[in-house]
Specification:
single chain, about 120 residues, mainly alpha, about 75% helix, elongated
Length: about 120
């Protein structure tokens, strides 16, 4: 895997940026602003990390966890009734989770290719 070429991680960066910035054009309430900005920034950071250092399955799994938390944020943060904010968490969270699922296997294979234990 080459650095800066994974479409999955670029998609996660876009989803994270959308979630973080959506607080500017959607009605917010409760803890929605904080959750969406923090989780969006974490997704962007995870995507950049995975682009810069491909072949780190642990980073892909962390990215998946951030995506799941963003997907569940409207329930945790109590803003499911605020449809603009809720959908701005659900959609980017689901997109990030799906594309991260596509990236985990290649990342694991890349890791194994470069970290194979020599035969005794």
């Amino acid at each position: 895997m080459k650095k800066w070429t994974s479409w999955q991680d670029w998609t996660v960066i876009a989803a994270g940026a959308y979630a973080a910035l959506s607080v500017l054009w959607t009605s917010q309430g409760g803890s929605s602003t904080a959750l969406m900005v923090i989780l969006g920034v974490l997704l962007v950071a995870a995507g950049v990390t995975n682009l810069a250092m491909p072949g780190m399955p642990a980073a892909e799994w962390a990215q998946a966890v951030f995506a799941v938390v963003l997907l569940l944020a409207p329930w945790f943060g109590g803003f499911t009734s605020m449809t603009g904010a809720a959908w701005s968490a659900w959609i980017p969270g689901a997109v990030a989770l799906v594309v991260t699922a596509f990236a985990i296997k290649p990342s694991t294979e890349e890791y194994r290719h470069h970290h194979v234990m020599p035969a005794p």
